[in-house]
């Protein structure tokens, strides 16, 4: 038994394997180079490496296992590709060679190599590479860089855009669709993607084991339950700064990135907005956790709805901290909304300190979320 | 192994004009990172054994 996973985060699959006590070797195909369009899926391969069944059924197993062994020739030991040789080949300008180089950079390169991978995928697309799969891989590279120390502004947004472009090119591609739904609105989710993680950790600890480490903890959309209805909760609280009297963040002590994940079904008119807040490292800014939690309030245009007008990012139980804070909203456009971009306005209120011993302030940051209506 | 086989099934791979994996042909010689250690692995590296390949996601 061998496994191949198509997930963006193989460490989560490792935890799943540990939880289910599945011990066979797993290969990671986050770029979906094998072209899988559905999972789960079983493939039978004989001793000679010949594919005997795709989408195999339980009833096929006995016949496969009892078939006379095929004559096998020894396979070469797998090794990492020679990146320099692939780079030289990519200079030929052939889309396949450029893609091969980009894929190798994503799979085998250092995080800093993701810059060149993204450039190479873009060049491959210009050279005529397949629009769907190249966009999907570009999205994977952007999301991977977003989660690295070399993150660039807009990486997460670009990942979503490229995955959406990939799905637009091939709406039957289940793997690509799931990658968007992982971050998208609950209305569009077939299931909660990673809600099993807490239970898995509990059960693994109960066995006396240490759960496998997860590098990027899933939250928000990634663990949200699916919904069949538009969620709309009215806050009973009055808006705290309706008149805009709180001082605007004068130095960008807190920086915000806005990402909008669409539904893969345009008729749902739903998106999930991810707002990511980071304290400014250059100013040595810190969250001040001795006061109220950070809040984000929305002002919705006529006819628009949200699952909540206010969201809170809770503070850790330490005086000062620098963690990334994420807030998510689901937004629904009215049926008669004109096609095009609509700006949803809002603001964040937070307590932030300049350096560890510096001045602490209560500040406001205005936010604009651009939602595309189809 | 069999438990996974039973619960994991949900349909056949789509037939497209130029699929990478075809019945009767060698499985692609693609080198991928192993989940545990990131070391290079390939399905063809297991030649000589019957392979049940489980393509899945933890979600």
Please explain how this structure is put together.
The complex is a heterodimer of chains A (374) and B (59). Chain A has 374 residues and is an alpha+beta fold. Helices cover 28% and strands 24% of the residues of chain A. Chain A is built from 9 helices and 14 strands. In chain A, helix 1 crosses helix 9 (196-206), helix 6 (131-146) packs antiparallel against helix 7 and helix 7 (155-169) runs antiparallel to helix 8 (174-181). Chain A starts with a strand and ends with a strand. The mean pLDDT of chain A is 94. Helix content of chain B is 12%, strand content 20%. Chain B is built from 1 helix and 3 strands. In chain B, strand 1 (31-33) and strand 2 (40-42) form a beta hairpin. Chain B has one helix at residues 2-8, and strands spanning 31-33, 40-42, 51-56. With 59 residues, chain B is of the alpha+beta class. At the A-B interface, strand 1, helix 1, strand 2, strand 3 and strand 4 of A face helix 1, strand 1, strand 2 and strand 3 of B. Strand 1 of chain A pairs parallel with strand 3 of chain B.
How is the topology of this model organized?
The complex is a heterodimer of chains A (374) and B (59).
Chain A lengths: L1 E4 L4 H11 L5 E3 L12 E5 L5 E4 L3 H9 L16 H8 L4 H14 L5 H13 L4 H16 L8 H15 L4 H8 L14 H11 L47 E9 L7 E10 L5 E4 L5 E6 L5 E2 L3 E4 L6 E2 L3 E8 L7 E15 L5 E14 L1
Parallel strand pairs in A: 1-2
Antiparallel strand pairs in A: 3-4, 5-6, 6-12, 7-11, 7-13, 8-10, 8-13, 9-12, 13-14
Helix pairs in contact in A: 1-9, 3-4, 4-5, 5-6, 6-7, 7-8
Chain B lengths: L1 H7 L22 E3 L6 E3 L8 E6 L3
Antiparallel strand pairs in B: 1-2
Key structural traits:
heterodimer, A: 374 residues, alpha+beta, 6-stranded antiparallel beta sheet, 4-stranded antiparallel beta sheet, 9 helices, B: 59 residues, 1 helix, 12% helix, disordered N terminus
Q: Please, what is the oligomeric state?
A: heterodimer
Strands across the major sheet of chain B, in which order?
A: 1-2
What is the SS-derived class of chain B? alpha+beta
Which of globular, elongated, flat, extended, rod-shaped describes the shape of chain B? globular
Tell me what portion of residues of chain A adopts beta-strand conformation.
15-25%
Count of helices of chain A?
A: 9
Rg of chain B, Å, rounded: 13 Å
């Amino acid at each position: 038994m061998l496994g191949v996973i198509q997930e963006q985060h193989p460490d989560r699959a490792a935890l799943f394997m540990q939880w289910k006590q599945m011990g066979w070797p797993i290969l990671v195909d986050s770029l979906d180079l094998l072209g899988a369009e559905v999972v789960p899926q079983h493939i039978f391969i004989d001793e000679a490496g010949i594919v005997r069944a795709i989408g195999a059924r339980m009833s096929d197993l006995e016949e496969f296992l009892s078939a006379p062994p095929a004559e096998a020739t020894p396979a070469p030991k797998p090794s990492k590709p020679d990146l320099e040789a692939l780079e030289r080949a990519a200079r030929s300008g052939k889309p396949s060679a450029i893609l091969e180089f980009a894929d190798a950079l994503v799979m085998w390169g250092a995080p800093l190599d993701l810059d060149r991978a993204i450039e190479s995928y873009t060049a491959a697309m210009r050279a005529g590479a397949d629009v769907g799969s190249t966009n999907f891989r570009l999205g994977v590279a952007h999301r991977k860089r977003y989660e690295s120390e070399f993150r660039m502004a807009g990486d997460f947004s670009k990942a979503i855009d490229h995955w959406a472009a990939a799905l637009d090119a091939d709406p039957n591609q289940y793997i690509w669709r799931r990658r968007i739904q992982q971050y998208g609105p609950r209305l569009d989710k077939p299931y909660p993607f990673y809600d099993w993680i807490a239970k898995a950790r509990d059960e693994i600890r109960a066995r006396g084991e240490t759960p496998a480490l997860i590098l990027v903890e899933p939250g928000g959309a990634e663990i949200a339950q699916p919904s069949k209805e538009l969620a709309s909760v009215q806050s009973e609280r009055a808006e705290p700064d309706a008149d805009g009297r709180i001082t605007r963040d004068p130095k960008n002590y807190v920086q915000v990135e806005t990402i909008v994940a669409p539904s893969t079904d345009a008729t749902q008119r739903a998106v999930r907005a991810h707002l990511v807040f980071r304290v400014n490292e250059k100013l040595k800014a810190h969250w001040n956790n001795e006061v109220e939690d950070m809040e984000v309030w929305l002002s919705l245009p006529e006819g628009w709805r949200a699952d909540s007008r206010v969201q809170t990012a809770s503070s850790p139980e330490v005086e000062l901290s620098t963690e990334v804070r994420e807030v998510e909203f689901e937004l629904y456009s009215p049926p008669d909304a004109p096609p095009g971009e609509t700006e949803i306005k809002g603001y964040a209120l937070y307590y932030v300190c300049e350096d560890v011993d510096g001045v602490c302030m209560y500040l406001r940051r205005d936010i604009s979320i651009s939602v595309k209506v189809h | 192994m069999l438990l996974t086989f039973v619960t994991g099934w949900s349909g056949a791979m789509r037939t497209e004009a130029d699929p990478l994996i075809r019945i009767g042909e060698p499985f692609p010689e693609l080198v991928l990172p192993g989940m545990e250690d990131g070391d290079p692995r390939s399905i063809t590296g297991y030649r000589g054994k019957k392979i049940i390949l489980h393509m899945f996601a933890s979600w």
